[in-house]
Write a structure and sequence with these properties.
This is Dihydrofolate reductase family protein. One of its GO terms (molecular function) is 5-amino-6-(5-phosphoribosylamino)uracil reductase activity. Pfam families: RibD_C (PF01872). Residues 4-187 form the Bacterial bifunctional deaminase-reductase C-terminal domain. This protein has five helices and eight strands, in the order E-H-E-H-H-E-E-H-E-H-E-E-E. Strand 7 (174-181) and strand 8 (187-193) form a beta hairpin. It starts with a strand and ends in a 16-residue tail after the last strand. An eight-stranded mixed sheet has the order 4-3-2-5-1-6-8-7. The chain is α/β, with parallel strands linked by helices and 209 residues long. The chain is 22% helix and 22% strand.
């Protein structure tokens, strides 16, 4: 069985919208795009390179895929991720995106995301890494299909923007399995879903029994 691994940059208040470029995602009038760029360093680069380099495939929602497909095919080989991202299999969940997809090694999963990703996850292979794709992440969370979260938590509060875990989203209990801190103060935290914990019986407090 393959693992579904989420790798995303977030702020301290949970915003994941447009970390890379000013014009990456201006939905809801968001004008703070590119907020993650000043925090990049060699530690972050090595962690990201290792995660993507060890992946067997990438998995995207429609919007994130469209953004990546508009940028990466034209990237120069000087970028350390270019060759891997352009050549690795890329699965895209969408019921509206027309095929065939033009970006190299892109495969359209045209059914219900929870069903198609569950079938993909059952196949043997390396990790399948989700980049961005917040709506897809939350849908898969709800059905217990996320096996690991690698969150790059930036020391930054934006006060606005689309969050990875918004109000009203699915809940989850997680175990911290690894953490690293970069030279710029970013905490790279890796979490895996915790086993369900039965609620403890109430304990009377002294003087209140």
């Amino acid at each position: 069985m393959s693992r579904i691994v989420v790798t995303n940059s977030v702020t301290l208040d949970g915003v994941m919208q447009a970390p890379g470029r000013a014009n990456e995602d201006r939905r809801d009038g968001f004008d703070l795009g590119g907020w993650a760029q000043p925090y990049a360093d060699s530690v972050m680069g090595s962690v990201m390179a290792a995660g993507i380099g060890d992946a067997g495939a990438l998995l995207f929602g429609r919007k994130t895929y469209a953004d990546f497909a508009s940028i990466w095919p034209a990237m120069t080989v000087e970028n350390p991720y270019t060759e891997v991202i352009n050549n690795i299999p890329k699965y895209v969940t969408s019921k509206t995106l027309p095929g065939p997809l033009s970006w190299n090694n892109s495969i359209l999963l045209s059914g219900e995301a929870t069903t198609t990703v569950a079938e993909l996850r059952e196949q043997p292979g390396k990790d399948i890494v989700i980049l961005g794709s917040g709506e897809l992440v939350r849908a898969l969370m709800r059905w217990g299909l996320i096996d690991q979260y690698t969150l790059l938590i930036h020391p930054l509060v934006l006060g606005t923007g689309r969050r990875l875990f918004p109000d009203g989203g699915p809940s989850a209990s997680l175990d911290l399995v690894d953490s690293r801190t970069t030279s710029t103060g970013v905490i790279i935290a890796t979490y895996r879903p915790a086993a369900p914990v039965a609620p403890a019986p109430p304990v009377p407090l002294p003087g209140l029994a």
